[in-house]
Amino acid sequence: MTLASLYQSNECAVSFELFPPKTPEGVDLLCKNVERLMQFGPKYFTCTYGAGGSSRGTTLEVLKKVKEITRLPVASHLTCVGSTVEDLTGYLQQAKEQGVDYIVALRGDPPKGTDQFEKTEGGLKYANELVELIREKFGDLGIAVAGYPETHQEAVDFDTDLANLKRKVDAGADIVITQLFYDNSDFYRFRDACNAIGINVPIVPGVLPVTNFKQAQRIASMCKASIPDTLQSAMTENDDAQHQFRVGVDHAREQTIDLLKNGVPGIHYYVLNKSEAAAELLDGLQMADASS
Prior knowledge:
8 strands, 43% helix, alpha/beta, eight-stranded parallel beta barrel, 292 residues
């Protein structure tokens, strides 16, 4: 089944993002959480890797385990950071040989300690170039690219960022998965703007169920996502861990219900290798398109 075809029914396609654990114990825990998340009928799992490609090998090992457990398609993140075209091609070949079905194609963040992306000699500068490489050499791999409802932190403005996204889609991306956001109106504004300039692939919202306010602040500062005043007030009125967990999960659940009512083709959950928050927010929800 192709990546795009997963989003062609009235059922909202759920997917989950993982990251490679640093210890064998972490891998065991991840596998247990993946098994728990299977009750929600995900269509696929994705896995990131460390800065500069530091854990690419572990990413493939994790995806191999996840595929063995779930029998579902899996997707590997891939960035241009610190890699030549030869490096990227080698990784893609290895990923394909190990059963990876899809690639989340990203330019990648600047290395730690710098605030500007620098192209590696013999490498690629933009994500659309990575999409072109995958399409040219590994045409049967599905491709997802990133979209930014509140604008990428390095973009000059919203319109410029949107034009960059269109280049990625025109290069051959199957779907767009968005950066996390806490206010659904930001997503709807972004989706409408995509439609207006002819981005016609599925736009999949990315949702992170935050479980404490410090986590929300840290992640928001990294990706320039704004925290609504209502969420901030609710999380900070009590520093009890269970209170903050409940507030964060309830907010993500409300986001999910509203997104379903507004006809999203799927939702991609950033679960941080845990299952408790995602399980609570999804419990009892009917993921069929509520707008139909």
